[in-house]
Design goal:
0% strand; 2 domains; 75 residues; mainly alpha
Amino acid sequence: MDMLVNTQEDVATLVGSRVLVNYLGSNEEVANMINNISKNVTSVDFFYEDQWKTLNMYCNSYWPKKYSLVEAYLL
């Protein structure tokens, strides 16, 4: 969850999309709670590690980058 939320604007976006429900009050409190909730927790095994590596390799390959430039400038 910490990857999704860095600022209170991120919380506002998630609340607006009904992904997150804020019962704490301010979006800043929620952002601080999420960012600090796992500070001293380490993960030994990441369940989606292989999928994560495959996705990163694809996103960093030639064609996705090339297509995004073509899409941005020509479409």
